[in-house]
Amino acid sequence: MATVYGSLQGIKSSQIKQLEELYDTELSGDSPTETLSERFITPEFTNHLATLSQTIHQPICCYVNRRGQVVRVSVGTPMQTQLAEADLPRRSGGAGSKRFSGIRCLVAQFQPPDTSAFIAMMRQRLDALVVLKVASKAHGHKNGDHSVQEVYLAHIVPDIEQPWVVEPISLEALYEEDFGDRIHDWEQDIQAAGFDIAASQTVPSDRDRVLLVGVQVDGMTDQQFQDSISELVRLVESAKGEVVGLVQQKRSRPDPQTVVGHGKVEETTLEAQRSGANLIVFNQDISATQARNLEEHIGLRVVDRTGVILDIFAQRARSQAGKLQVELAQLEYMLPRLRGRGQEMSRLGAGIGTRGPGETKLETERRTIQRRIAQLQHEVDQLQAHRARLRHQRDRQDLPAIALVGYTNAGKSTLLNVLTQSDIYTADQLFATLDPTTRKLTITNPEMGDRYDLLLTDTVGFIHHLPPALMDAFRATLEEVTEADALLHVVDLSHPAWERHIQSVEEVLSDLPAMPPDALLVFNKIDQTDSETLAQAQQTYPNAVFISAVERLGLETLRQRLVQLAGAAPITSSRPMG
After folding, report:
1. What is the pTM of this model?
2. Which of 220, 223, 269 is closest to 247 using CA atoms?
3. SS3 content of the chain, % helix, strand, coil (to 5)
4. 80 has a pLDDT exceeding 80
5. CB under 8 Å to 42, separation ≥6 — which residues?
């Protein structure tokens, strides 16, 4: 049965039937023994394709094999209608990806071909790409070829920098071209040069190859931009991805449709092809519409910084509570970005009683996610209540509680391990730990013989522009901060952007509903800090404590300051009475 692929929304059933009839067209040569058709396209097929594109106001792609048979008809651009590897014919001869696939694409559309069309040609190893630029219906003619304004013929060449050639050509010249001879010559050139057409498409299965896109908008200094890119690299690496390139742009504000504008999208598409990237990551939040536009043009998954952070959280969540909060954050992030990917949803209940009259699969997905979000929010409320009971039990012990806060990878978990002889997981990576951990710290005063007991709680690390979805989902965890008696703000002094990290943490804390009245600033990793930076911080923050958790420098001073911070009363004393 003939199937028309692509976006068919708004297309009449009679028009779909006309599209299906394209499968009945054969572009084969005059001799039944020919293995290659003699023409790229026939006048009759040109006419039919251009007229249909004008009628439905959409681009149409027809994929044709070397026997001249139409194997697929799709509505959309070459990038949007690519054939999967499994749908491409298997070629004999042992040349593998140094040979063409045996399929050519004939497309009728209203614009000249762009980089995305050539990238699609590369990815499918097409014999050729023939683009008919047709006039809009208002300016078209009914006398056949006059509706075609321009014609372009593109094919792959053995050039790493730009592995394709595109040339304007007249319809008359195209009709006279010997398809078999041209394809044979092009393929011989590829094989003679040893050019591997699909080499840049080979991606390791265990990690993403990521192309970063950095946008520097007004109000962002060069240093802030570089810091954001460096942090994004760390985020991608923490998510087990491999950064293979960077595209950057300065502009006053993000483009509402594509963030970076059409020209930079073209550059990004080309760079993704050159670097073999399979994922595009932006250094700022992008809307669902922007992500959809970018994916349609580039042909690869596009995520923003928030998406990467959520992926890290999903990988690091170990406890049931952590997994619960991460799933809630992911679903709240995903909901506005649904694009009808029904086969990817695992909890669809599209059965009796769950679907209204005329409800689409997309609406069913949205309804399913909304129900799951409501369920998860209820469970988070229960988690809040559970944590409140635990805090109440600790309060009954009359022990002061101090929450460790700070930018991610500042060394909070390492410090807690050193102070309390614990074995919490630590690693030199962003968001190594997610779940709050509380340990008792006993501090003694050798001179006076006093002993003090405190509770230290390690919390999830903060980051610049912490995603709102995470703030909402992790409200049960963040309550450990708001309910503490005091805060210990840990700062990585060895990081070039330590001052900005302090500001970012303070911004996150200011968004919380309540804050402990007292806080102590602790600068960590002084063993990795140059003397000039250390002197600057000591002068700017004279009341802070300077330590190295790993080298155990300054810890005794920190312990005594913790006692003062918490206002803890001594548990025992060896001092004489009276």
Report:
1. 0.74
2. 269
3. 40, 20, 40
4. yes
5. 27, 175
